[in-house]
Amino acid sequence: MKNSEASEQQIHRIHELLEGSAAEVNWNDHVSDPDNPSQQRQINVSIKRDGKVTLVECRDRQSPQDVTWIEGLFGRHVSLKVDTTIAVSSSGFTAGALSRMPLLSVCSTVRALSESVTSFSNIAMTASNESPKLKSGRG
Q: How far is it, in rounded angstroms, from Cα 42 to Cα 32?
């Protein structure tokens, strides 16, 4: 098993514990692409609870994740019509990514989740129940 898969499974387990039995938490989930139903889209972790869907995407890289990844996740969020998107990065986020998050309705960033529990050290939650207000900027 690759290191990234082990990290994804740790994040999956954390969400199972946080959500309890009221939610369906799946690792390496696949959903139909709304724009092309014959195409399956892979999601690192999905959480289904009370008719709402959250996708969790994880990155285990050497460098902090940049604004391009955050904007890509937001595009995925819109395309898959999910309620919430959580970005998890083992190496953190660049200043550009952090400054872009509020513009894409990111509600919080939590640093140092707990290195004793997981190797991932940064989580950014993106909730977008209202339409996004995209503004120009570089990261």
A: 9
Q: Say whether pLDDT at 109 is over 50.
A: no
The span from the CA of 59 to the CA of 92, in Å, is 9
Condensed to tens digits (0 to 9), the pLDDT of residues 110-119 reads 333 433 334 4
Q: What pTM did the predictor assign?
A: 0.75
Alpha carbon distance 114, 81 (integer Å): 30
- Considering the domain 3-127 in this protein, what is its CATH number? 3.40.1350.10
Compute the chain's Rg from CA coordinates: 15
The answer to whether 76 touches 66, Cβ cutoff 8 Å, is no
CA angle centred on 15, ends 14 and 16, rounded to 5°: 90
